[in-house]
């Protein structure tokens, strides 16, 4: 009688295996992750906190897309207050709040957890770079180093690579500090005053006279 | 099926003749597929008879009227659908009645899904079925969650009732309707779509029921997923329907369906931080409500429409507070209504530190979330009803809190065209690292994923949505970091104010004139738009 099922707990083991494959292959399927969380919320006795923590790490790496926040809407509060979820939530809050130094301090205490998802550090650094590039036209090498927690050869390699592939250039300040000139994009420029030509469908003065005439009649 | 308590023996003779006639004719019209008559009996006569004979009580048991309708199985299921809807509206249902109503929906849905039905039913009724079924589902979860008030007997019964009103089963039914109706195929092909709009699903030789149940189930899926806090899946479930693609919207023909669609879609967009899309959705539906509400002033849904109208103004107020640029999607009328209702609160929220106001508005305007998992029946002191609501509130306020320094930062930035990072930091009492974080946060908050004309309700691209434009630069001569600023010019609105007041004056004048000449202006009541 009951129609075929897409929402029942019997599917959980299968979905958990498929998710582990996502982790292994570095792929990401938001719908599959949400389906898992939904099934956990339907049958709390099947909750697997290890799987949830890996799902959250994957979602963290999707920033600035709000996947992580969306998932929190489906994870009961008492689980959110448990470790390692609480630590992952704190990490994401640091990233979203652009408190990168605080993030790097916090990540030291949960290295083992985040390492369960390969490619974690590369993805986080890509996100941080994105945040800097959409806010700044130039940035000092020092700020970049602190934000990415990179220095020495790895940092220089990264900069060289960006010069080659992403049109970065370098300059230096009078005190000899290295300054990186970042390419312009949609977000790190002032787009002029075109926002005053709003798409607004307002009344013009001619409409007022129409209303006035109507009021008189 | 009908063995539950009630003691209706001898009730049959008490059924008024008018009610008997209603049942007989209703059955006959359904058999004859006379859609106009069915519609009028469903929409008008049933309401009138309920009011006259069954206020505060139930309609006759199906057993009592079954002989009048040749014990027709499907008709009896339809009758019971209306019976329980009336019961829920007029009294507190017992657990037995809740279970019986669920079983009735299951049987009715299975027949529609599994057999070739040939009946025609008014689309308005089909929407009511989906709507009512979800309402009763919601009501059951609330009832079940209040464990502390249950008797031992009720707890035993709850333990035995298995998958009654189970979220997964309900979702599966809705999905099954979508699948068998091929509604995605219909909405996806221009030819079939045109035909669909023209016929409104009523076709000569086939039943409108499966197809329209499929359409309404899309909206139903949106709602159920929203109720459990799964906003991504909610918008995804809309599938071929898009709130901003009017050509595929049949929903606007049925006010309840249209309002359900936009309320939930708008709420999902808000929770997904897609503020431009949220304000656009609310603008569309609030304008619609302004246009149609007069036609519903005498219907049972009128109070519901007004309530949703108020709630959506509250949601819109929060949307604008979080993203002032979202104002550009609003029409004058809506903007003025919002200013009248929530002007002060928006100012409070925009100034920052208005977390109490956010909480108040969220609590007032959010859907009635449900906890899909059954409560632990062995710990009957707990009340699980508030869990999902509290979780949503916590997540939402977390975001609000994260951004609570931004208004002060924006205000200060707007005074400069350029300012050094060190000076800005000293004005805000922040060190440079913290200030850089705030600037990047402000930048992130000024981008918003927004639908750009292609793809489903979830599709979109990152678009600028800030009310201030800035970037951070390093002065190569001094080595100092500098913020360059340009305020996005606010839309000039003086003429709006003038027009608003002139129109108000105009309407006062008109009502004064009308009150001088009583009876001279009978208000014409048009029939409800697209009644069926």
UniProtKB/TrEMBL annotation, chain A:
| Lineage top rank: taxon | Eukaryota
- Which GO BP terms sit in this record? formation of cytoplasmic translation initiation complex; regulation of translational initiation
Entry-linked SUPFAM superfamilies: ARM repeat, Winged helix' DNA-binding domain
In which broad location class does this protein mainly occur, judging by the first location in its UniProt entry?
cytoplasm
- Molecular-function GO term, any one: RNA binding
- PROSITE patterns membership: PCI (PS50250)
Q: Which UniProt keywords apply?
A: Cytoplasm, Initiation factor, Protein biosynthesis
Record-linked Gene3D superfamilies:
ARM repeat, domain 1, Winged helix-like DNA-binding domain superfamily/Winged helix DNA-binding domain
Which residue numbers delimit the PCI domain? Answer: 28-186
A cellular component term, taken from the record's GO annotations:
eukaryotic 48S preinitiation complex
Which compartment or compartments is the protein found in?
Cytoplasm
- Biological function: Component of the eukaryotic translation initiation factor 3 (eIF-3) complex, which is involved in protein synthesis of a specialized repertoire of mRNAs and, together with other initiation factors, stimulates binding of mRNA and methionyl-tRNAi to the 40S ribosome. The eIF-3 complex specifically targets and initiates translation of a subset of mRNAs involved in cell proliferation.
The entry describes its oligomerization and partners as: Component of the eukaryotic translation initiation factor 3 (eIF-3) complex.
What does the similarity note say? Belongs to the eIF-3 subunit K family.
| Protein name from the UniProt record | Eukaryotic translation initiation factor 3 subunit K
Which organism does this record belong to? Symbiochloris irregularis
TrEMBL record, chain B:
Principal localisation? cytoplasm
What are the recorded Gene Ontology BP terms? formation of cytoplasmic translation initiation complex
A matching Pfam family:
Paf67
Q: Name one GO molecular function term.
A: translation initiation factor activity
Q: Where in the cell is it found?
A: Cytoplasm
CC annotations in GO: eukaryotic 43S preinitiation complex; eukaryotic 48S preinitiation complex; eukaryotic translation initiation factor 3 complex
Cite the entry's keywords alphabetically. Answer: Cytoplasm, Initiation factor, Protein biosynthesis
The family this protein is said to belong to: Belongs to the eIF-3 subunit L family.
Tell me the subunit arrangement: Component of the eukaryotic translation initiation factor 3 (eIF-3) complex.
Q: Say what the protein does.
A: Component of the eukaryotic translation initiation factor 3 (eIF-3) complex, which is involved in protein synthesis of a specialized repertoire of mRNAs and, together with other initiation factors, stimulates binding of mRNA and methionyl-tRNAi to the 40S ribosome. The eIF-3 complex specifically targets and initiates translation of a subset of mRNAs involved in cell proliferation.
Q: What is the recorded name of this protein?
A: Eukaryotic translation initiation factor 3 subunit L
